[in-house]
Amino acid sequence: xxxxxIWTEKYxxxxxxxxxxxxxxxxxxxxxxxxxxxxxxxxxxxxxVGKTAAAVAMAHEFYADTWAxxxxxxxxxxxxxxxVVRNTIKNFARTMPIGNAAFxxxxxxxxxxxxxxxxxxxxxxxxxxxxxCRFILSCxxxxxxxxxxxxxxxxxxxxxxxxxxxxxxxKYIADTEGLTLSDDAxxxxxxxxxxxxxxxxxxxxxxxxxxxxxxxxxxxxxTATARPDEVEALIETAMxxxxxxxxxxxxxxxxxxxxxxxxxxQMHRLAIKMDIPARQKVELMDRIGETDYRITEGxxxxxxxxxxxxxxxxxxxxxxxx
Length: 322
Ligand SMILES: Nc1ncnc2c1ncn2[C@@H]1O[C@H](COP(=O)(O)OP(=O)(O)O)[C@@H](O)[C@H]1O
Ligand SMILES: [Mg+2]
Hints:
single chain; alpha/beta; Rossmann fold; Helicase, Ruva Protein, domain 3; Zinc Finger, Delta Prime, domain 3; 3 domains; two-stranded parallel sheet; 16 helices; about 10% strand; globular; binds adenosine-5'-diphosphate; binds magnesium ion
């Protein structure tokens, strides 16, 4: 069998304009390229939303054929924190840029994994080599980057990708790969992705192995995501006070191998969007939050989910069933 390339690599954007969503950020990055000027940057945000992709694409636009010499990508959690700063970064930073480039770019992924001491060392390195080198620090939370670094950087906050951003890229990939993607399948991809493009692309590639005609069911199954209509039905049944029926629905999802905290996370997502009176939404959220907290504290997941269903029945249900 032929080995397939990983699509997240195959479809890594080569140009900033190929980065889907994040429009304001991309426009700013494009203007750095145009002015051939770059401050140090912090890219913060959740996984799979294009932080690395944007940095790599921007570097391609800055350097064209000297890209490999002038751009390097390191992961702060790969190696032993401070060693990365002391050696790898210094070695790269202290040699002159190649060609007619004015500076090199170092992309440091998971910079928030560095200890404060390592970050202080990094700050000194940034200052020392700022004549020849620009840093892009990627992290989940910019608050985990020490203040002296933050104040030397322009901070860009990447957001979970919108429905449109995921859908347009998924469609492009599906077209290129010769897959059929119905509107239902497209909706399923964006739902299971939770705004994470890596998740969307991986789900699409896994589904494509099964069939070139992508079906929503495949995508839910591959990602162990409950169908949104099933989760909504679960909430509605519980709120109608139909305890045993709701327990059945919950059991069906768990039997499919969907984890308790996944079901809870989906209940939360859908509850926000449900068309119910505000007061009911407050009660619903309060109880979902309570269950989440208990599970995080180590309580038995299944018991807590059953108890959540029970409490929804008690609060909302007027029925005498069960
Ligand atoms: N906004 C985006 N537009 C297009 N592709 C994206 C986008 N975000 C992520 N990807 C795809 O998902 C993969 C992982 O994205 P990456 O940039 O490494 O995410 P992050 O660094 O934010 O965790 C990339 O290789 C790319 O194929
Ligand atoms: Mg990344």
